[in-house]
Recover the amino acids of this structure.
């Protein structure tokens, strides 16, 4: 889990909290992970597989292993700005909004994770 970019800055204690608060999800192809307009309830990291980002029904990005989504809605306290739908079987790590705000939000506010270029996908 710490090998996933959004979590690599965590120390051992925070990593243990993250492991306890997070959950691994396996989804098949063509499943909606988050839907545009829904409340922001979690942060996701794609560990394997691919997903498509749809904004107002139009494809705006493709996500692969290592990409993440959900942080913008959580940081801004707004509804989801896009739908994310799987295109292949995927494995995701999900943490709830409270765990994100406690453990991860400050990293995004400081310009981390290191792979911040993936944040600009529109999947948030």
């Amino acid at each position: 889990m710490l090998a996933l970019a959004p979590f690599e800055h965590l120390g051992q204690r925070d990593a243990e909290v993250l492991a306890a608060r997070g959950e691994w999800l396996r989804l098949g192809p063509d499943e909606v992970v988050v839907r545009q307009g829904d409340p922001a309830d979690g942060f996701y990291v794609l560990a394997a597989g691919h997903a498509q980002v749809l904004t107002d029904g139009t494809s705006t990005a493709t996500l692969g292993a290592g990409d993440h989504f959900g942080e913008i809605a959580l940081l801004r306290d707004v509804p989801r700005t896009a739908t994310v739908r799987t295109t292949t079987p995927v494995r995701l790590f999900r943490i709830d909004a409270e765990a994100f705000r406690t453990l991860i939000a400050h990293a995004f506010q400081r310009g981390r994770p290191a792979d911040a270029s993936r944040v600009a996908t529109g999947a948030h």
Helices lie at 12-21, 71-76, 97-109.
